What does this fold into?
Amino acid sequence: MVEVGPLQRYLSVGDVARRCGISVSAVHFYERKGLISSIRTDGNQRRFHRGILRKLAIIKVAQKTGIPLAEIGAALDKLPRNTVPTAEDWAKLSSQWRDDLNERIDQLTRLRDQLGQCIGCGCLSISDCPLRNPYDELAQAGPGARLLEMDEPDTP
Amino acid sequence: MVEVGPLQRYLSVGDVARRCGISVSAVHFYERKGLISSIRTDGNQRRFHRGILRKLAIIKVAQKTGIPLAEIGAALDKLPRNTVPTAEDWAKLSSQWRDDLNERIDQLTRLRDQLGQCIGCGCLSISDCPLRNPYDELAQAGPGARLLEMDEPDTP
DNA sequence: GCTTGACCTGAACTATAGTTAAGGTTTTAT
DNA sequence: ATAAAACCTTAACTATAGTTCAGGTCAAGC
It folds into this structure.
């Protein structure tokens, strides 16, 4: 911890890392990627505003939901710049991410249900198996998508 | 498609790729990684047994559940070697993977619920926020794990 | 005032899951 | 018989998310 005065206390990269439970190299990495920023001392060492802790907390939560760093960075960029994210900022971000998360949960749940259905069905050899004819995949593949041909009609 | 005789019909790498909806380079890649295998023609071209289609179908499903290739390969290795996976093999694999999937869904669901609770709570600044004190993380961190200190006690 | 720990940069390396390119060979179709 | 399409290998490259190393500088405690 670096004392600069009674009201301005800045954090070194090590402080930030320790207090967020991430590594120093990760802090460097996030800065290189533009997710966070710092000022420098005369001796060229990073000093972080305390708000960095909140920002990193947000980054960590978003990562847990599976959102890639680039997207997290983009979302943070839309926040009022050079400011500690407010509760309102957080509300916006988190409700959007919760929606993303819900969608991923739904996807995985559909997959699990298919898997459950297929466990006892002699799966992958019967032509109407939901895993062999997955609407998900057809939807993703877009135009030109067609049924997967894993076994040909002539197969027993 | 390569005709070798009335009963032995082998698939070229292109056939396999086309019929599984993956790329030729991915088939090569899976073979390099030991997930699948092939025999060779006199001219050193790959020929795949038809059972490869079922195996690749299994691989694709497992990947959709988020299981890394190395783990998929390990699971396939435990199957009777040089044989087309049977319905029973598939039942074992798929029920295990379904359990994995369920666990991941549960994790994400807990996270979503925490996120939902935190959206309106002035989150990340209040010391008892579930996202600031995530039992998940504590559980993962093992011995020496402690509460994340994102804001110090002296913070307003 | 000097030693030790923390910090700096840049480059290279890790892992996962492939893709792309280059240069050469084989198969297939006409 | 020949041209085109498909195939072969090796190596390098993509992206994501960092980590590790080397060589050098800064800051803090005694």
About this structure: Strands of chain B lie at 2-3, 9-10, 39-40, 46-47. The two ends of chain B are 72 Å apart (CA to CA).
